Amino acid sequence: MSKQNETVEPTQTLDDKRRENEALFAQLTNKNKDYMVKLNRQLDEGGMLEEQKTEIFNDMLKNIVAEQANHITARKIYGTSTDQAIYLLEGKREATAEAGERSESWKIYLDGALLLGGMFSIITGISYFTGNQEAGLGLITLLLNFLLGGLAVMVITKYAPTPGVKGGFFKYILATTVTMVGWIVLMAFGTALIPPALNPVLPGPYTLAIGLLAFLAKWYLKKKLNIKGTLI
């Protein structure tokens, strides 16, 4: 019995893979290029050898280029560049994915609006029951607390230090400070310009009830929508 001819593909050398990686990288979308650049930098910071990166990137780039036709990004395939870097360097994707993952911006905004808007409503409502019978929030003031609160949380969480990545703490402190000061200034001076007739004050008990409902909604929606990357 004669054996059928078998085709044996030549083994690629490291230089072959480097050249192939360059050709594959050129085919990436801008978003995927940015992903690979960040990943490359994080692996360099982690001390990975160039030879190891060449082998890893060869497999990754082939996969990413193939999935681009289906409008699937590198982030969707491998998670954030930080998660992938930690996985490749330490093999701890599962242990760190939760800490590094962040939901879509609109979910972060919704969660933040309910958190900070609800918090200030509750504080105002409690002050009514502790002796300040005039405590209450104007209707427009209350709405602005929710709207600006969501924006503040979006900014703060965007600059939050990422596990496994060096630096970024100063940016986080600066972003948090600027955001909170800006919020206070807008609330203090912006609402003062609103005519009282357009900003009727809600009594303390109603303000407290709105705050409690906001907290309940935050708790429910965070689980329902699986919101991740928020302040609490």
UniProtKB/TrEMBL annotation:
Domain of life: Bacteria
Pfam families: DUF1129
InterPro entries documented for this protein: DUF1129
Membrane-spanning parts: 108-129, 135-157, 169-194, 200-221
Keywords, comma-separated and alphabetical: Membrane, Transmembrane, Transmembrane helix
Listed name of the protein: DUF1129 domain-containing protein
